[in-house]
Amino acid sequence: MSEQDNKEMPLMGHLQEFRIRLIISLVVVAITSSVAYNWVEEIIAMISAPAGKLYFMNPAEVFFSYLEIAVFTGVVVSLPVIIWELWCFVAPAFTRHEKRLALALVPACVVLFYTGLIFSYFLVLPAAVRFFMGFATETLQPMFSLEAYLSFFISFVLPFGFAFELPLVLFLLMRVGIVSPAFLRRKRKIFIVLAFIFAAVISPTADIFTQTMIAVPMIVLYQASLILMRFVKPKEEQTGA
Fold it and tell me: Quaternary structure (predicted)?
C-alpha cells in the first residue's frame, strides 16, 4: 500500500463513520415520523388549539400537511439521538477533559431547545395568534388554511428553540476564552440591539410584537447567563453582573 493510501485511509474511515451515524439518525427520524403520522390528527389539534378550526383549500393540502407535521414531530422527538450521534462522531477529536465538559453540555443543549419550544407554544404563540386575530373586522374574518398555519407554527416556534441556546453559547465562548463576564457586561446595550436585529431576521412575520416576544427572552437569558457565570469564573473575576 502506498504512502498516499495510508494518508487517505483515516479520511475514508471518518467518512464511513459519518455515513453510519447519518443513517442511524435518518432511521430514527423515519421511525418517529411514522409513529407521529399515526397520531397526526391529535398533534394538529394540539398545534391548532390557539387558532381554532383550520381549513384546507385543495385536496392534496391535507396529505402533504400531514407529512410535514409528522416529519417535524419526528425530528423534534429524535433530537437527542441526532445530537448523540453527532457527538459520537466528533468525540475522538476532544481531550478527556473536553469530553467530560461536553457530556454535561450536550444534555443541556437538548433541554434548552425543548424549553424554548415549550415556552413559545404555551406562552407566546397564543398571545401572537390573539394579536393577529385582533385585526378582524365585520368585513375581514380570519380563516386559516391548514398549510399556511402549520408553516407559520413551525417557523414561529423553532426560533425560540435556537434562541434558548444562548446561555450555552455564551458559556462555551467564555470557556474557550473568547469572551469574559466583564466583557459581556460592558456590551449589554449592544446585545439588546443585536437581539432585536436577530429577532427581526428569524421572525416569521414583520410585526414588532412577534419580534419583541423573541428578543425579550434572549435579553433575559443573557442577563441570567451573566449571573450564572459568577459561579464558573474565579473569585477575582466574579464582579457584579
Answer: Forms a complex with TatA.
Secondary-structure percent of the chain, ordered helix, strand, coil, rounded to 5: 80, 0, 20
Terminal Cα-to-Cα distance of the chain (whole angstroms): 60
Q: What residues pair up with 55 in beta bridges, in sequence order?
A: 145
143 phi/psi in degrees, rounded to 5: -145, 95
**Phi and psi (nearest 5°) for 101?**
-65, -45
Q: What is the DSSP string of 201-238?
A: HH-SS--HHHHHHHHHHHHHHHHHHHHHHTTTS-GGG-
- What pLDDT does residue 24 have? 94
Lookup: cell for 98 = 473536553
- Grid cell for residue 102: 461536553
Q: CB under 8 Å to 9, separation ≥6 — which residues?
A: none
Residues 19 and 11 sit within 8 Å (Cβ to Cβ)? no
Q: Is residue 179 packed enough to be buried (19+ CB in 10 Å), middle (13-18) or exposed (0-12)?
A: middle
What are the tens digits of pLDDT across the range 112-125? 999 999 998 998 88
> With 70 as the cut, is the pLDDT of residue 8 above it?
no
Helix (H, G, I), strand (E, B) or coil at 145: strand
